[in-house]
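Can't paste images in this forum, so I'm doing it all in text. The chain is below; anyone willing to post the predicted structure tokens underneath?
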Amino acid sequence: MRALSASNDRSINLSLPCPTLESMNESPSNKFVAMLAIIAVPFALGAFVLAWSPSDQFHKSDPEFDGYVQPRSVGDLVEKIQASTVSVFCDVGKVGGGMGTAWAIELKNGMDKKNPTTLITNHHVIEDCIGGKGTLTVAELWKVEVPAYIVKWDKENDLAVLATGLKLKPLGLSQSEPWPGYWIMVLGSADGYEGSVSFGSVLNTTNTEIFITANTSHGNSGGPLIDNEGLVVGTTSWGHKKEQYNGAMSLNAMCEKILKCDGEFYWIRD
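Text version of the structure:
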């Protein structure tokens, strides 16, 4: 080992002598310490294994099997959903138009390879652009607008399917129907402010709608309604003008014209 030079020009050797097997055998205290180490190691490993599972669960952003609690990491969840959500612009000049939000879904749209990504939004967001009457564009958070195309729509349930060339990771769909009291998140372009987020709970549900306590504004329309596991349970659709709750079309509503479901509803009911 390299030696350091002292002020009196003598070398200080930092190396320490290593104990030999003979020296350990000569000391009863060393034997006792070694025996304690051998006994303690299995207990330490056992404690680590027992502590790992709850610790791992705590740091997850998706509390499993408990829809009532908020995610462990709300920030991670927001970032994940924002990466799969876009603002939607329907520009028809002076005649009118609309603005809203859309979210990526794993669904074939029948378009060419240049527009592989499928988006879900509200019918009322893109209504004025149906039939080529206006220019339809979408934009990721803080990025430029790119073209989007209307694939199909369901006016009765206020839903529409779009296609775009943007490469977005599809959001997963929840396999569990939300219950009153479940934690939810709304993300979209509230009042034109892109990437806006609000939190609340499920107030109640019908066969096709979810009533929520989270704040929504013009521009949130078409955005994803997210549960605490980061999965979509519905599409934010309207705000109540008098009562203190807002609404979203649930995944059940998508079964009529958007998704191929096994039965009348997306969520299986006994």
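The helical segments are 21-26, 28-58, 74-82, 123-126. The longest helix spans residues 28-58.
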